[in-house]
Amino acid sequence: MYSVRSINKLIGELNRLPGIGEKTAQRLSFFILKQSKENALRLAETIKEVKEKVKYCSICGNVTEEDPCRICEDERRDRSILCVVERPGDIFLLERMGKFKGVYHVLGGAISPLRGVNPEDINIKSLLKRVKQGEIKEVILATDPNVEGETTALYISKLISSLKVKLTRLAYGLPVGGDLEFADEVTLWEALEGRREIKG
Questions:
Q1: Confidence of residue 19 (pLDDT cuts 50, 70, 90)
Q2: What is the CATH number of domain 76-197?
Q3: pLDDT of residue 179
Q4: What is the homologous superfamily of the domain 5-40 according to CATH?
Q5: What is the DSSP string of 111-132?
């Protein structure tokens, strides 16, 4: 370990970020140290601003500074098509394509008994409440194509199958075992376009 306490502390904090190992944390720490004081403080201020201003939309669970979020407020969106995703970042990816015109629901995770994540730990109750209101005609399950995502999609499909809505799943243009965040825009759009209906 380095003998400078504040650098050790910064390395430790960066090392807690997902996908950041100790060596990357060290490189980032020394990169920040090399930056001007203004640049480093701008980064710190931006992190502080995000933590103070960003909240979750009370309708869909997306990240937003205004509640409801801009997507939920947008009258041009097709409220009859609801795309269910695991994370707010998945909405960012789908929106970047500029082709999906429906609305979203963020689960806030996926069912994973091995990690201690049960159905009641994610936003399934609020999803069922939205579907039961009657405006939604199709639910697209856009959970990750891995074990947890498939388990979550299957669980939700069993709950929704009696509610008289069309239930679809993203097509398998996405690699099995992968995450949406690593898919390119073309693959993601093809998966969305090629979604299949789930029979309950």
A1: very high
A2: 3.40.1360.10
A3: 75
A4: RecR Domain 1 (1.10.8.420)
A5: -BGGGTB-GGGTTHHHHHHHHH
